[in-house]
């Protein structure tokens, strides 16, 4: 019997396998006229085809699970991660920082001069979604009494309950492996100690393994990894007396760990002490800096697949910008987005520094205390010694959309309000997918197409985009405000909102705004002296061109034209020349530079009859090319009340020169969906 050259072995569908087997058998002389459908051979062919399919599937699955990129089972992904030294993140407890003030009452000990806040003291939060959460302080703290009270500052509170398990070391557990029986453990808070025996209470503390270069035969360390054979619980194991100290038979191992609710406690606030603080509980005030944050679930298999190879390439040290990003994402799960760049990229350069911008989850900024904590506990231990890390706040640019949607009323049976809702939902989806992170890009064509696809009646979309910066003003003092959009700006689109209260020349408070001086960007920018001439005791500078209003004067030094100072910049110039005349001198020439890329700003208010009154006709400048605004010596008394922004928020608004917007370094594009000015939709029936 010979094989059929047309036998298609790559087709693994059971029915096709059966067909291929029939074709093969029919090609043999013994089965030329055999009726496969009505015989017992039909059942045998079914068994053969399904068995072949199962084997092929099993082999394919085994092959897929052998590689990081194609594996689907968590235990396989975890095993691959172990080979590159990556420990998947467990759940993380939400945390916050608080000041704790303890004032002894008359019924408590008032003579003590110092007080210790014990480690793992319990605190309880206010109800969040009907549930109160327990918090603990991971470290103890001792303070001296001041003015009758004990004040503990910047105490970290972390959500969860401390649980202790003990294990007796014996020969039955030759590997010295001990499981933490909880799917909710926070591995950042796992503590291990080894007692000499059940009768000898000498205790040695073991620290988690961190650095191979410091690991010796007698180093008391423990190792931690997610175990793929025990419900994905984490396991603690020890060294072998070559790399790390090995506990002996009869030792008692104590493992204390934090069992946490992960992300469910994010937002918890307003804490009360549950345990007494060494006997004090009558007058204990806990003041948190912010609602709890940073609680998270354990890493998913896709996160492990993405992060483990990158973490391996960083080798647990921060040298390149990618190293910083991977380490921070791994060690600080509260990060939504991170951007890192060297000081040499700054203008002017700042050598010897690395700048890190962090966008936290569920917030816009992280506190200064948290910045210090990240640098001290995460970055400093891994960064190059001669490089100073500095964490900076993100620089938010808010986008405002004025959208027109053209629709065919024949193709829809819903009203305009419902169509606006569909469009708004598509906009929010675009924002979530493309913005709100560093290195984001806004593409107007993609944005408009995304809206148009929200309903089959939408025939076309146009959108005007405005960029907005939010400024926190300084009240009662003159201040120069420098606002960087870091993107080329469109002329004649500048505005501010809400009104700012400023004194006029008669010391009357006015509700003021700032605007561009019309056509100020078409005046004279500078005049460069090309030849200084000689013999000048007087000089008249005359500017001619197709604009009007420009004036200038000459500065004479040593009978030469040293420089030319602009008096009035004029307007509507597209070309201009300058001439210098004198009763005594000769030979001086100069060149005019037009004001293509800069414009002027002025401060004004409205009278009750609508008349516009200018308080300052030159309050600042706009650099359209570099995307910066400077407002000089502005003395704001307060911000006019409004229904949109917080009372201390003043906005600067201007359109980009091009509607496709890229971001660099610390910049983030975002849309405030709670601001009804941000998404304005007009429906146009066709």
Give a nutshell description of this structure.
This protein is an alpha+beta fold and 686 residues long.
Q: Could you tell me how far the N terminus lies from the C terminus, measured between alpha carbons in angstroms?
A: 74 Å
Query: Strand arrangement, largest sheet?
Result: 7-13-9-10-11-12-8
Work out the helicity level. 10-25%
Low-pLDDT stretches are: 1-5
Q: In angstroms, what is the radius of gyration? A: 36 Å
Number of helices: 8
Description of the structure:
The protein has 686 residues and is an alpha+beta fold. The chain is 16% helix and 37% strand. A seven-stranded mixed β-sheet has the order 7-13-9-10-11-12-8, with no helix packed on it. Strand 28 and strand 29 form a beta hairpin. Helix 1 crosses helix 2, helix 3 packs parallel to helix 4 and helix 7 crosses helix 8. It is extended, with a radius of gyration of 36 Å. The termini are far apart.
Architecture blueprint of SSEs:
Blueprint: H1 14-26, H2 41-65, H3 74-83, E1 95-102, E2 114-117, E3 122-124, E4 134-136, E5 141-144, E6 150-159, E7 161-168, E8 177-180, E9 185-195, E10 203-208, E11 221-226, E12 234-238, E13 252-259, E14 272-273, E15 284-288, H4 301-314, H5 321-331, E16 335-342, E17 353-360, H6 368-379, E18 388-392, E19 395-407, H7 416-434, E20 441-442, H8 444-452, E21 458-471, E22 479-484, E23 495-497, E24 500-503, E25 509-516, E26 524-534, E27 540-545, E28 551-557, E29 560-568, E30 576-581, E31 586-594, E32 598-606, E33 612-623, E34 628-634, E35 638-639, E36 650-654, E37 661-662, E38 667-670, E39 679-685
Parallel strand pairs: 10-11, 17-18, 19-38, 19-39
Antiparallel strand pairs: 1-6, 1-15, 2-5, 3-4, 3-14, 4-6, 7-13, 8-12, 9-10, 9-13, 11-12, 16-17, 19-21, 20-37, 21-36, 22-34, 23-36, 24-25, 24-35, 25-32, 26-31, 27-30, 28-29, 32-33, 33-34
Helix pairs in contact: 1-2, 3-4, 4-5, 7-8
